[in-house]
Amino acid sequence: MSILGRANRRHFVRHPLQLILAILGVALGVAMVVSIDLAAKSTHRAFALSMEALTGRYTHHLTGGPMGIPESLFTRLRVEAGLRETAPAVEGYIGLKETTCHLIGFDVFSERNLRSRFVNAARGEEGMRLLTEPNTVLLSAVSAQRLGLKPGDELKVMIDNRPHQLILVGYAEGSMPPDPVLEGVMLADITTAQELLGRVGWLDRIDLVLGEDPSLDMKINALLPEGVELISAAGRQSATQNMTAAFELNLRAMSLLALLVGSFLIYNTMAFSVLQRRELLASLRVLGATSRQLLSEILWEAAALGLFGGLVGMGFGVLAARVLLHMVTRTINDIYFVLTVTEFMMDPWVLVYGVFLGMIIAVLAALGPAIEASLTSPIMTRARSGVEGSARRAIPWLAMMGVLALLVATGLFAVNLDGLVPAIAGVFLLLLGYGLLSPVFLLGGVWVLGALGRVSWGWLIRLAVRSIGATISRSGLAIAALTIAIAVSIGVGTMIDSFRGSIAEWLDQILQADIYIAMPASTPRLSPPLPDGLAERLGSIPGVDRVSSGRRVFVSTSKGESELLALDPPYLDQPGFRFKDSDGKDLWAHFPELRGVFISEPYAQRHRLAVGDRLVIKAGKGSVTLPVAGIFFDYRSDQGLIVIHRRLYNELWQDPTHTSLGVYLKPGADLSDVRSELDRRLSDLHLPLSVRSNREIRDISLETFERTFAITQVLRLLAVGVAFIGIFSALMALQYERRREMAVLRATGLTPWQTGGLVLLQTGFMGLMAGLLALPLGLMVALALVRVINLRSFGWTMDLSISVWPLILAVGLSVLAALLAGAYPARLAMRTSPAQGLREE
Amino acid sequence: MTNPFAELLNLNNVSHGFREAGAWRGVLRGVNLRIHSGEQLALVGQSGSGKSTLMHLIGGLDVPLSGEIYFENTDLAAMGEPARTLWRRQKVGFIYQFFNLIPTLTVLENVLLPLELNGTPASIGRQAGLNLLDEVGLVDRAETYPDRLSGGEQQRVAIIRALIHQPRLVLADEPTGNLDAATGEQVLDLLDRLVRAKGHTLILVTHSAEVARRADRIVRLVDGQLALEA
Predict the structure, then answer these.
(1) pLDDT tens digits, residue range A649-666?
(2) Could you tell me the strand order of the sheet in which B66-71 lies?
(3) I need a surface site. Which of A210, A280, A350, B187 has the fewest CB within 10 A?
(4) Entry pTM
(5) Can you tell me the distance from the alpha carbon of B110 to that of A480, in angstroms, rounded to the nearest whole number?
(6) Helix or strand or coil: residue B145?
(7) Cβ contact B116–A287 (<8 Å)
């Protein structure tokens, strides 16, 4: 290494804590991006593997119908259409020990001929045992190994909350080696699966291998009953994958936000390291080092810091990704679909990209300070006032750029652009713009606090506050970084509170019945119907006023496969939904006569539908076109929901079954008495019914909500953690710079405690300023997240609810973080002898 | 070969000043000065008389607002900053009151830095550096960091660093201002010996009449203007 390089590099050797903090800052930023990316990639792969386990080499699937597909269709396809390459499937999810397995009922003979993924299982001796022995299953070797199971073991499983006993007779791979694609898959003969899942006579899917012949499609379509659809395997996969796109984009945005905070930290570190070395750099300039040499030295240094930080971050990222994968999978399982594969996937590209990102961010962050240091003349570089002077001169320009960034951000929010990316860019610009404006606010705050210092017990305050203003080039950066981190925390926290509030309000509105009864759904798409006559049986229980019914099905529409809910609310005076454009009283009052649909807000948003638009639905008696009569707020799914009245559903589908019942009590009736009687009557049915009071449903829903946002909370805390390291690093550097000033003050008569107090006062003020500045920004971020990002991501309109306590806590957190960060520098200042401080200069 | 009596520096009507708090403050007013190769010149004057500013201008750290500074017929003011930097690294050696050694480099590395900046591989310059350190009695401190040295030792290192690349011009700004009388005397002896032995041109800024008397010629700066003393 050149002597010039060594002269610069050893600055960090002499300040190892700063070096460690800088590397840690880059590392945390990179770790967040890498962990989110790895978790996302792993879930993608899990999804692809889960799909592959299902689809094998099939090219098409038949799906649909309220009950699924009648078994007879499979025979007709084989016999009438002569399609030999077809295979029926019934599927559901069952609990085995602590895991969920994907139970697939397959036809051993069909699979044997198809060379599908299950061919090895079908051809082996174990396949034959599935046919001949009752309650026998095969489990993927990977899962069996993980759960410590071997062939011959008895499996205690839960299906629809009912315990069952199955016998493991072999592995899903047959005699072949373990196949990760089959992780979480349990195979049974189709008849066994139908019995276990309560689907006798029905299929969930028929898989087909179709050639290029287009007439085949027509031939098949002619045989299909209403509601059953032929779809390509690729189309199905992409439709399912699209469901989580917005969720993943949000996660990625959160990780980039963390990286933004991280890059502020890197900028901070590099700016400080350059500022601290200005005398060294000036000496080098005097000795003949060119601007370009110094520029390249500093940039190489930043790249090396970025590389080290990136490598450390890569390690952290891999560790964190394993935790995040668990959280992401749980969220996807809660709100989208069940992923049985939970294998962690190490994608080397993500790691390489993470390290490069660290380097690029570090170099970009160092560019400004490096240019500043290399272009200033040696004489100016040497003068401390020169640095602060140019920083102060830059403040109006930074403020102007900040205003510009805020204007562009406002424009991006106001203009209803397609997609999430402009909205996320808007949030970034909002943070950046405000960050650039923060020095102006800071100087204002310093003036106000300085004025307070004049009237109260002041000289120590004046001293502390003035030094913040006098070191704006360093304190401004630290405060901006902390402001952004605290604001992100406020913004995300307020968004989550608003979301929770909206969901609680929504649950209160939709959960009008006192008790709800349904069959637990073990299949992904189908809710099993309740027994006939159950509504009447429950209606006669003393204390019960009325019983309403609901029917939930998936139907084909002009907007693709959609979830439809048919309702017959017993009371028409109080709307069961909150409608978007009206109070809904009139709509609800005429609901029974309505020949139209209500759609949920996410459905309207996703498919760009408005009141008055028309929707074509494939009903049992052919396609019908129904107008959209109203749009209601709904948070149960971001895929959306169509609601029609039960009368219209019966007319269109001729399907009298229910999937849920709502029991309304008479005024004054005792809930526990009714519940006891209800449980007694239901126990006669010997069915695994789910009976829950509206309070229980509300609690479970809110619990799911908290689980969904657990990952967001983790990222939010990480962002604050990065900012804490940033402010700690900044304060360390500031105190290092001020050691002569402290020594002079000590020499003049300041006690060690007063010196420590001065440092803490200064850092406390910095924390207070950052906390106060973060309040408006945090609320702006919350507004953007609630009104723009969430609306565009999931189609959910929420009310912004602002609570005062979290805001006070955020300011407190900011002050506390700053005081904690200032504790060590304060201790150092107290312990440094004035003689040493003066000698060091 | 360089003519030892040739004119090295020619300052022609040099003026300079600064804007401070919105007001203009003139520091140098029409300074004319010629310095010959190998000459030792003492620049004296009260604080604020413009000595350091004149040194910065002569050393190419800054350019005058008006007038010309010719170094061997090359106008420094007409050079761009990068060219002045390259010129400075080859032709000028600086010695400061506060030594300004690079704290992150060892004594030997400090000494070798100008050679390296001028493209001389450190392996070649190393022996020359060690010889010079030996000459000033600091060879056993070659691997020590500057903060372990006394003021006098630091200034001796600074002198070697200023001379190792054989600059035509050595600028010393109060080289003894931070040292006690005896140590200052030793440092000046060393500087005098080395500069004269190698035939460098020396411009020495000082407050001390005693120090100034060692020079071939003394010029005094009064209110930004030169007054010849001897």
Answers:
(1) 988 888 888 888 889 988
(2) B23-36, B7-20, B66-71, B74-75
(3) A210
(4) 0.68
(5) 38
(6) coil
(7) no
